[in-house]
Structure formats: structure tokens, C-alpha cells
Write a structure and sequence with these properties.
alpha+beta; three-stranded antiparallel beta sheet; 3 strands; elongated
Length: 82
């Protein structure tokens, strides 16, 4: 698979997690103003690989939050950067 998509987060960006317990795998959706991205697993991919990917996603999301909080703390001006 090869794709490149950029999401610019704003007040209209939202996430939705569909959980199905033990019946099927979860689906995580990122929704933007004009598009959305769904992250889902596939039964042909070993669960260990899926867990590795989900853990990497969680780690990078936490890193994104920490970096954005650091940036926000240092830049109290709400004027968008050019």
C-alpha cells in the first residue's frame, strides 16, 4: 500500500472509535472537513503485527500531543503561522 494524506487539525477534526468487544476488531476513524481515514485490521494480518502497529500509533499520538503542548506553551499568540 502506498498513499500520502495530510490532515490539518482544527476545531472540526474529530476521532471516532468503534468497539465490538470480542466479536470483531475495532475501527478508528479520523474525520476532517473534507475527508476521513479509517484504521481497521484485517483477518489475514497476524494479530501480533496489528498490535505492534496499534502500539506504534499510540506512542506517536502521545508524542504528537506532547510536542503540540510544548509548542502551545511557548507560543501563546493565537495568530496562525504563515
Amino acid at each position: 500500500m502506498s498513499a500520502s494524506v495530510s490532515f490539518h487539525v482544527d476545531g472540526k477534526t474529530w476521532f471516532h472509535l468503534c468497539q465490538y468487544g470480542t466479536q470483531r476488531t475495532p475501527i478508528l476513524t479520523l474525520n476532517g472537513a473534507d475527508c476521513s481515514l479509517a484504521l481497521a485490521s484485517h483477518r489475514d494480518v497476524p494479530i501480533a503485527e496489528q498490535l505492534e502497529c496499534a502500539r506504534a500509533l499510540a506512542e506517536n499520538a502521545a508524542g504528537f500531543l506532547a510536542a503540540l503542548e510544548l509548542f502551545a506553551a511557548a507560543n501563546t499568540d493565537t495568530t496562525p503561522a504563515e
